[in-house]
Write a structure and sequence with these properties.
Structural class: alpha+beta
Distance between the termini: 39 Å
Largest sheet: 3 strands, antiparallel
Bound molecules: zinc ion
Shape: elongated
Number of domains: 1
Helix content: 25-40%
CATH class: Alpha Beta
Strand order of the largest sheet: 4-3-5
Length: about 110
């Protein structure tokens, strides 16, 4: 008797540059350094440039900025304006800590479809 098995879909995983947790790609935010040297949030994961992944939490965003992880990962200096812009983004769209992951996931799915 052949057993029909649902094969699990391949989930691309990325590692958060701050907490080093592996998560499915869409649970992370990709920050891209564009060829022009600007930093952009890449919600679709398709922008050209050097990218780094962060959890969708304010915690990882803020420590990434404070501890220069992001600068190190992207090999770029982050000026005060860009830093403020990224923090602004995290306050608006990201959850504090890990309590609101479900909401974050919905947000990401909405952005991708
Ligand atoms: Zn993280």
């Amino acid at each position: 008797m052949p057993v029909t098995q649902k094969r699990p879909k391949h989930v691309p995983e990325r590692t958060c540059i701050v907490c080093r947790q592996k998560r499915p790609k869409w649970e992370l935010v990709r920050i891209v350094r564009t060829p022009q040297g600007a930093l952009e949030i890449d919600n679709r994961g398709k922008k050209a440039g050097r990218g780094a992944y962060l959890c969708r939490t304010q915690d990882c965003f803020e420590s990434g900025l404070k501890r220069k992880r992001l600068e190190y990962a992207l090999k770029v200096e982050i000026g005060p304006e860009q830093r403020a812009g990224l923090l602004e983004y995290s306050k608006r769209f990201l959850t504090v800590g890990n309590g609101g992951e479900h909401r974050a996931e919905l947000h990401v799915k909405g952005a991708c479809e």
